[in-house]
Amino acid sequence: MTVSAANIHDNVGYTPYEGMKLKGWPVTVLSRGRIVVDDGKLVAQRGSGAFLPCALSEAAAPLGRATPELAFVAERAGTPLV
After folding, report:
1. Integer Cα distance of 2 and 8 in angstroms
2. Where are the alpha helices (DSSP H) in the chain?
3. What value does the mean pLDDT take over residues 35-53?
4. For residue 25, which phi and psi values (nearest 5 degrees)?
5. Which residues of 31-70 are buried (b: 16+ CB within 10 A; e: fewer)?
6. What confidence score (pLDDT) does residue 81 get?
7. What DSSP letter does each residue of the chain carry, written as one string?
8. What share of the chain has pLDDT > 90, as a percent?
């Protein structure tokens, strides 16, 4: 199986795994005991999922220093970034 955006069920339209060759592929996907994908076909009812919010980890916290891209923009605008 070769991964492509065409065989992924999402709303993004691309996958970072495009072109990767796999030895297997899921046949059935379960979510909370319910079948979501069966034999490659999405069978879940639209809107049946639930978003589960979670807190950001400390790794996602700002470091308090400018990245080169942002520093460049701030310098051109004449405003300090930090």
Report:
1. 11
2. 68-77
3. 88
4. -150, 140
5. eeeeebbeeeeeeeeeeeeeeeeeeeeeeeeeeeeeeeee
6. 59
7. -B--GGGS-SSSS--TTTT-B-S---SEEEETTEEEEETTEE-SPTT-------PPPGGGS--SS--HHHHHHHHHHT----
8. 24
> Using CA atoms, how far apart are residues 66 and 73, in angstroms rounded to an integer?
10
The model's pTM is 0.47
DSSP for residue 2: B
Neighbours of 3 (CB within 10 A): 16
- pLDDT (0 to 100) of residue 46: 85
By the 8 A CB rule, do 26 and 35 touch? no
**Which amino acid type is present at position 74?**
A
